[in-house]
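Incident log, entry 3
Record: DUF5648 domain-containing protein (523 residues)
Problem: checksum mismatch between cached and fresh output.
Input:
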Amino acid sequence: MKRLGRAIVAFAAVVGMMIGGVGVAQAADPTDGDGAPDGSGQPTLSDIPYSVSDVSVKDIGAHTANVTYNWKIDVPADQIKSVCFIVNVRTVTDITPLNYDGDYSAAGLADWPNCASGTGDSELTQTEYQSIYGSKSHDLSLVDKDGSAYLAAEYTGQNFFRWMRDSWDGTSSSGTISVPVIGLAPETTYKNTFESSVSTGLEWQLSAKLEQLWKDGVKEKTPLDLGEIYAGLRAELTDGSVIVFDRGSAPVPDFTTNAEPAGKAEADLPEDARDNITVDGAGTVTAGKTARIYINDLKESCAGSKSCFWYGYIYSEPTKLTSPDGAPFLTVQKDDAGKAYVDALIPADLTGDHTIALADETGEVQGWTTVSVEEPAPAAKRMAVYRLYNQYMTSGTNHLFTTDKEEYDGLVELGWTGEDIQFYAAASDADGAKPVYRLYNQWDGSHHFTVDAAEKDNLVKIGWTLEPTTWWAPADGDAKVYRLYNQWSGEHLFTTDKGESDKLAGLGWTVEESGFSVYSQGE
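Fresh output:
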């Protein structure tokens, strides 16, 4: 499955960590990198410049826009190993002062973002979409005169990067690129309120605003209107050095997103758009499940590799459809045969015959058809739990457990090692089953699992994201789950294999109490 020939990755970033921030999702420290000649994990920063010109914003919707720009690296193409194209987006809408003891932060270039971590569009869950793109509270950390970091303020805003690592043609040292930016808020102006030689100008604005508020004795939440949006690239050279994003990134022109288009009444759907879409499954969909909607006649402006973001509605009254990842728009994609489609989540409370319509970013209806919505099949009492291993993660937990076969298969396609079904769990909280909480560490990209509500609450307090519970630990499970901790990497591993547990314990892992059991067999 292809998304118009592009692999788009995003991660949230935390402003206020002196240089560049800390990436969220599968993110690393700002100075992390690969290919370091000294083995330190920090690549050599190249002095070779690059330039960005003719930056423009096109196809502006309510939540999306395409940022297009020319780029040029001042080195022959045969000296370039890879090019990653990047757009960062930052906004601040308010700040709450907590402390101010000066700001002795040092500006400088760092290999950040390094295009080595993040969440691809095809991997997004509803929780991750909001975690990466949503406006939320952040901590602002500054450095005092002794060189120690301290928590200076809390602020609210958006803060994320979008990057494309596989769009370079492998033969050019210049060209034109268009980076699709999603996750934008409707009727919002995105702008640069401070232009800097590095994409950390927002930190200095925040620090200056905080200093003034502190001098004025203001300690309550105060509205702000700050923004930063830059376009650029990161390039790896054949000599092992890296040209970092801040070496030549350029500000993106101000733009304002549109209001979300209102869905047309069913009676007003144009007759010439009837059956220009076809719903997979012979027009039968399942309530609460994803439906694939094929576009029979894709409009010319979406042809080729152009990124398009549409809207879907289901009737009687027009109810807006969301993407499976929770996005308020539907991304036009292409399957392996080149057929255009969107994926939409059917509301769980609908059954019977309904009409589905698709509209483009302007609200113009592109197609509509009728569908039959079926009730979902009765839920199984037991469900398979799959385990995957990510060999590229160097800290935190590099194993993931999931009951979602689509998530499992998708991660295997991205390079994770699938370890198949490990055990079976209860599919609900019936008969005294306990929820297995799934938590996500935004700083290293790992996941943790626990049935301990207090442990869950403590992790949420320190910044972990609580994701939806999808499996439960049965009260009558016949297989004990062993929990082991690796003090060197910070990983927690869960296994029902006593031999695996004993082997890891012999290697220095700490055996902990998981507090739950599972089923060794399915129903």
